[in-house]
Amino acid sequence: MDLEKDNKKGITIVAHILVWFVLFTLPYFLSIGADFNLQRTLKCSTIPLICYTIIFYTNYFVLIDRLWFKNQRIYYVVINLLMIAFFVLVIFEIKQLYFQPTVVRINKPPLRLFVYIDMISMLIPILFSIGLKTYERWALSEDIHRLSINEKLISELQHLKYQLQPHFFFNSLNNIYSLIDRYPDKAKEVVHSLGKLMRYLLYETTAERVPLAKEIDFMKKYIELMQLRTSNNTIIHASFPSVDLSMQVPPLLFISLIENAFKHGVAATQESEIGITMTLDEQHILFVTKNIYLPKDTTDKSGSGIGLLNLKKRLELIYPKGYILKSEIIDSTYVSTLQINYKEQVS
């Protein structure tokens, strides 16, 4: 943020220098030729520009911030009127002292016309300084607003991520509890596997993005853990692509769909089948889970649904216009589909 601010400041300084350089030098380039008159160019261009520069930066650095934006505009107007009167007098005296015409013109315009033109001309740098300062103030407020939105986004994502970790751990403990009495050896294996998963949750998912390869490895370990819990009646098909470590995704984005497939697609008394598939193309990740559709009994209060709610909120924050999440029943099979355009994620 500080580097970006320094870059903007540097660009602003260079822009000011270039603008004034062009304003001061352009009259000389335009006057080059047979009619070039250095005295006339100094009198009509350079000296007024020096006055305009002083007026502009007096307003830009001092008066606008201290008076105009503080609603002390009467003082602001009075001070600028005094400055204009002073510089009109300065220009008049300099012209009289150092730039007396060598030829007396018969139909010379009245003096008050030149004074009037000088006064009107000096309003231009004042108006430009107000406009520029107002724009900079608006741009700064927009930057602050955008920064606050980004900070709020990061805070919400962190909250959702921390909310998901206890939820995952709670579900895993329930799985272990169901195994302790009947299959104590399996329960020990599950505890060991859960330790590996929790190590990933605690130490690898603190970043905003993690390598997709590590996330796939985490999901494979979770599926292995769930296989220890399920009976021989459950068949699991899992297919994941091979990816390199350079491909980054938000952590724990797909695990909720896998959890739901095991939670709602495994029956103790009948054969069950769970399918988990991830495919990739140049822009999209397509993740699909399939399980048999087992209508939930109305008296069954298990499952708070926090995982899917969490997933929807995170997708809306990270991929506001770059995701599709849907669930449907196809031939007694419950299919959940998540497609994300990982190149359009909010940074």
How would you characterize this protein structure?
A hairpin with a 2-residue loop joins strand 6 and strand 7. This protein has a five-stranded mixed beta sheet with strand order 2-4-5-7-6, covered by helices on one side. About 2% of the residues have low confidence. It has eight helices and seven strands; from the N terminus they run H-H-H-H-H-E-H-E-E-H-E-E-H-E-E. It is of the alpha+beta class. Helix 1 packs antiparallel against helix 2 and helix 4 runs antiparallel to helix 8. The protein folds into two domains: 144 residues, no CATH class; 162 residues, Histidine kinase-like ATPase, C-terminal domain (Heat Shock Protein 90), CATH 3.30.565.
Which structural class best describes the helix and strand composition? alpha+beta
Q: Strand sequence of the main sheet, in spatial order?
A: 2-4-5-7-6
The level-1 CATH class of the largest domain: Alpha Beta
Shape: rod-shaped
Q: Biggest β-sheet, characterized? A: 5 strands, mixed
CATH topology tier name of the largest domain: Heat Shock Protein 90
Instruction: Please compute the radius of gyration using only Cα atoms.
Output: 36 Å
